[in-house]
Amino acid sequence: MSRAWQDMEQITIAAIEVFCIGGGVALAAALDFRIMASNAHIRVPEIGLGMNMSWQSIPRLLHLMGPARTKQGVIMADQRISAKEAYDWGFAQELAKPGKC
Has residue 101 been placed in a domain? Predict the structure, then answer.
């Protein structure tokens, strides 16, 4: 599914409000643009739960955020990444007021 979204000819945009966890992060990473509400966060708990992160998510996150940030935010820490951090790290292209994505 995420490969199909990535390969679409149309421009794809994720509007992330409040939280985006696990598979939601994988799908959002496959889209062209991500807009996050300022009160939103992303989190990838799979690694901390002993599950693999599938759907080619790691390569996509590496492309968006770079190796150090991907390791920090996803592989090693299982931490909440705020919208501001996601923007600073390159995951989100734009921040919006809550309810305005």
Answer: no
